[in-house]
User: What shape does this take?
Amino acid sequence: MEKITDKCTLGNGMVIPCPGFGTYKVTGGDSVAVIRTAIEEGYRFFDTASLYETERFLGQAVRESGIPRSEFIIETKLWTDEMGYEGAKKALEASLERLQMDYVDLYFIHWPRQTGADDEDWKTLDIETWRAMEEMVDEGKIRALGCSNFLPHHLENLLAHCRIRPAADQLELHPGHSQEAAVAYCLEHNIRPMAWSPLGRARDNGQAANGLLEKLAKKYGKSSSQISLRFLIQKGILPIPKASSVEHMRSNRDIFDFSLTDEEVWMISCMPQTTWLGEHPDFKLPSKKSNPDQ
Assistant: This one.
């Protein structure tokens, strides 16, 4: 079993801090302050995307921190309307401009299919997008490539044609939505699974009714959220939680002084599935925000 530490190794050998810090919905007048506080609390791996409209805030917070850029791991993603060979090249340049950075550490395709179930050419589009991203690695603008919301059949298409393998795949993963087949595939193929929404999005319809997380929280003197994060880490998954308060930022990192037993990990893995609020990458696409440059 992989040793559990606050560092995580990706499929390409890159070592990054664990857990990461998610910036989705970290918008508004205090966005830079929230991210700057996360930096002060020790976070060094930050997740953003053109879809999130937080790249500018993240870049500003990093500059204002006074900490060398080289000490951060910055990950961003291109959205469906930015896919394709030329689209991917333009998308990265736009993200770098918003971040005010010369390179990103991780660059992901955000969604495997451009138009959902009606998209018959998604395989070709993914390959063309990936080829452009590989060239940008060669140019020194990206350190590692990855995917978001890619299931095994999406990854198979890339692996059959890529020159640079995906180092990570970011999926919605949390107790009650553990996507065991996708995680197993990633681990088998040396692709690090990452978890967006690692604390869940439907807190009142499965996790709460089950009561298991609360029982474990009481046993270990931790919160249910900390149990969820520790569960993911012990499954080989790198969680990327969001937080706006210092208390939650600290709590989300305070997960390395206890271990769940194998039996407890199995029990959480077999929890009843929550009502899923997300969109399936083969059928329905999330809504695009109006202006990624804001």
Observations:
- The beta strands are 7-9, 15-17, 21-22, 45-47, 73-78, 104-109, 142-148, 168-172, 192-196, 238-240.
- Confidence is low (pLDDT under 50) at residues 290-294.
- The two ends are 44 Å apart (CA to CA).
